[in-house]
Design a protein that fits this description.
By secondary structure, this protein is an alpha/beta fold. It folds into four domains: 237 residues, TIM Barrel, CATH 3.20.20; 140 residues, Chondroitinase Ac, Chain A, domain 3, CATH 2.60.220; 105 residues, Sandwich (Immunoglobulin-like); 102 residues, Immunoglobulins (Immunoglobulin-like, Sandwich), CATH 2.60.40.10. Helices cover 14% and strands 30% of the residues. It has nine helices and 38 strands. The strands form eight sheets. Strands 3-2-1-11-8-7-6-5-4 form a nine-stranded parallel β-sheet. A six-stranded antiparallel β-sheet has the order 12-15-16-22-18-19, with no helix packed on it. It is globular, with a radius of gyration of 28 Å. It starts with 30 loop residues before the first strand and ends with a strand.
Amino acid sequence: MQRPFLVFALAILVLAIAVRPGTQAPAQAASQNFGVIFIGASGDAISRAMQQLGAFSWFDFKDTGANPSGYNKAVLVRSNEQYSQGRLQLMASQASAGAYWIIGNEPNVPGQDDISPANYAQRYKYYHDTISAIDPSAKFVAGNTLNWSTTCFACGGGFPNGQTWLSDVSTGFIQQYQTLFGTTPPVDVWGIHTYVIDWNHVPMVNWQQATQEISDFRSYLNTLPSEANKPIWVTEFGVIWGYPGLQSVANNQCSAGANCIAPTGAFAQLQVSDYLNQFVGWLMSNSSSKNIQKWFLFAAFGPPEVYSSAYAGISAMDGPGATANLSTSGQVYRDLAGGSNPTPTPPSGGGGGGGASTPTATTTPAPVSTPAPTATPAPADTTTGSMGSSGGELQVRGGSSADGGVSVIFPQSALDQGTDFAVAVVNEQPASVNPPSGATLLNKTVEVTARTLTTLRKTVGIRINLTAAELGGRALRDIRGGVITGATVEPRPTRIVDEAQGIVWIDVDHFSKFTLFAVTKPGPEINGPANEVILLNLGTTLTWTNPVGTTQYQVQVIPFNNDGPGIDLIRNAESSFMLQPPNFGGSDPNYVMLPGMHYVWRIRTTTSTSPPSQLTENDWSAWSLRSFVTTTKLSNTVSLASPSAGSAVNTRTPTLVWTNSDSEVFYYEVQVSKDPEFGANAFLYWELRHGGATNPVNSYTIPSQFPLEPNTTYFWRVRPRVQGDAAPVSWSSSSSFAIAP
């Protein structure tokens, strides 16, 4: 995906970001609105990514590739060339009948399709007629320009914006088609790409600009009687440059062979995550009012742009293959998909190709019929308020001291900064959500929404006062709470606060939608460790008592807010499981547990003798849960080994090596700077390193694309990496070395 780039301003800023080593996200139900873009991916890789991301629609820049079962494949054809009928027949054979065909990729941009509106009109007519002869039920997505109102800032040269290319009264595509063929173009869906391209401001995460492009596009379409009722697809969106800086590099470091650049600083994950939350959140909120039907994230795994030595945008997966896991950005997109609004049903359109049909998760997409009348949803009561680092309480319906009331309790230091929240409570089960195993849902749903991107530093409590009617004769000890994830409920630690008053407390580690359920098939009784215990090291023994007839159990160990690796195993019946601490350098190093962090562990059992792959949710008991906190690890066991203090080295890319007498520590932060205070006065290298994965172990090598300066003294230091709700620890003592002239 080549992007315009000619002239740019250099900026250097380093941000520290959290990395989740080896985190594996659970699969979830596909969301109809959410899509993702692949670049020559295998079928297994596509299936894996779609399942993990919770997306429903996808397309690839290659011609062929079968559609994994349960998903919707759109088909892209380029408008700067004319595909033969045989080639189109082959592509149609790899898609479902009634598939959506995306005609063209940024026809207004040099380096992409770069085709005039008049030539695009002729190419569009050819594709529409040829594909319709192959599949009369095919649908067509037209336009797909890069942006509507803006183009590219600090590029030294531009391209026509989408508005000029599409709507100019004499030269635009719509007018050209009408002039050539005597009718409006037969369009089912209008496509647009939305990117912020501003080389003066990196990272490029101005989500308000991106949403304005879509609003302006919708406003234009609404002025055309034939197009006003047709849906919009955002056929590509993402981030062009996700780093805080850039620099010129040798021309052999990019495929263009000229004007090559490279990122500087750490990938701005927090800002990119905020962009995703804000932009996709806006799409979800406006999908109905602006008839935005689908949006496609670029990319599942992105390659470097032709002008860059490294890919600087969003990759939803951490690799291109069939064993890839979600990246941090992919987890954000997955979480958004889990809370998405339903796909809007497009009204019937006038003129051209008529109204578009909403694809469904069937083999052959079919028009969405008018839904049958449904019961009026129960009213939601909502409270809004601000909360800061000092903590506090937000109350709905009088708070948890009142019958049916809810309080959200923020402990001190749970938030880094002041944030506005909304808390909504409704007396009904969440729609289209299945209860967890061995349980039934109650008529109580609580949604906690932060107005800005917010990461919790401590668990927050949702305290709920249940009325006798809400309990429905159930014992309070059988009531649990959980977070809604896609079409399922993931149980959270729940405890009784006041049995006489019917008050329970749910611990949560991120903001989402929550519900209550009653256990109908009790799970094992947990014996140890004690709930909320602080472990003496990073390992422990989990013990429990099984229900009668248990044949197998499933145990999961889940880090705070999924910020790190975890454990998920199914084993034959036992009453204990040894949670091994890391053992750096050992034959079985167990690189899983991280220091100073809350973990939830849960266990459920079954009496079935079927193999794990054949077990269903109905075979399992309810989950039993507890939590613990791993011990803190300090830097006083770390020694900086090489280069030796005050020594001179003859390479500008030295390897820094440290040792640690504590074998349970394997994950580190490293800083290198000319500034002995590691402040903003000099370029700061701030990296994360898995000590067991480096060569040599416990080391960091200065990257070749960012060499150190000759005849200069540098300072460096190391500390154990913490994640989740763990508090950062002090750095090791620093050491210095000099780069020879």
